[in-house]
């Protein structure tokens, strides 16, 4: 059974940092692309960042470039999202999602919600001003 479990969310002041974790199981980690999405109340779920585990390729939404960094620990089958210089507009429920990497070949963006097959339950990030 494929599982993705997020952790690390919380309340932080603007300018602060958080590191989110996505612990995965039930599939061959190296064959997957793992992404972070976020959804604020009343808004569409948007892609934040993606990492292709096999070749280490990374992609970011323009809104987080230079502030967020995605990485993976292959020994732990875990993906991280380091978020620095957080802004109130980063407040959202953050989800990790997975899809076989071959299905994202040639796409140099995070991707869209419907392109991902497996999802975690989400972790809340709240940034106060």
Question: What do these coordinates show?
Answer:
It is built from no helices and eleven strands. The protein has strands spanning 3-7, 10-13, 18-25, 32-39, 46-52, 58-60, 68-73, 78-83, 92-100, 118-119, 123-128. A hairpin with a 4-residue loop joins strand 7 and strand 8. The chain is globular and about 40 Å long.
Brief synopsis:
By secondary structure, the chain is mostly beta strands.
The overall strand count is: 11
Query: What is the CA-based Rg, rounded?
Result: 14 Å
Distance between the termini: 40 Å
Determine the number of helices (DSSP H or I, runs of at least 4 residues): 0
Helix amount, in percent? under 10%
Q: Largest sheet, described in full? A: 7 strands, mixed
Mean pLDDT: 97
Succession of helices and strands: EEEEEEEEEEE
Structural class, judged by helices and strands?
mainly beta
Low-confidence residue ranges: none
Quaternary status: single chain
What would you call the shape?
globular
Estimated share of beta-strand residues = over 45%
Can you tag this structure with a few keywords?
129 residues, mainly beta, 7-stranded mixed sheet, 4-stranded antiparallel sheet, 11 strands, 0% helix
Topology:
Blueprint: E1 3-7, E2 10-13, E3 18-25, E4 32-39, E5 46-52, E6 58-60, E7 68-73, E8 78-83, E9 92-100, E10 118-119, E11 123-128
Parallel strand pairs: 2-11
Antiparallel strand pairs: 1-3, 3-8, 4-5, 4-9, 5-6, 7-8, 9-10, 9-11
């Amino acid at each position: 059974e494929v599982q993705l479990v997020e952790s690390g969310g919380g309340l932080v002041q603007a300018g602060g940092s958080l590191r989110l974790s996505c612990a995965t199981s039930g599939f061959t980690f190296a064959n997957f692309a793992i992404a972070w999405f976020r959804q604020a109340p009343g808004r569409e779920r948007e892609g934040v960042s993606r990492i292709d585990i096999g070749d280490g390729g990374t992609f970011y939404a323009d809104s987080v470039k230079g502030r967020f960094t995605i990485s993976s620990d292959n020994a732990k089958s875990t993906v991280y999202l380091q978020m620095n210089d957080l802004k109130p507009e980063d407040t959202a429920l953050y989800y990790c999602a997975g899809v076989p990497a071959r299905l994202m070949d040639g796409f140099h963006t995070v991707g869209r919600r419907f392109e991902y097959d497996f999802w975690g339950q989400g972790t809340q990030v709240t940034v106060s001003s």
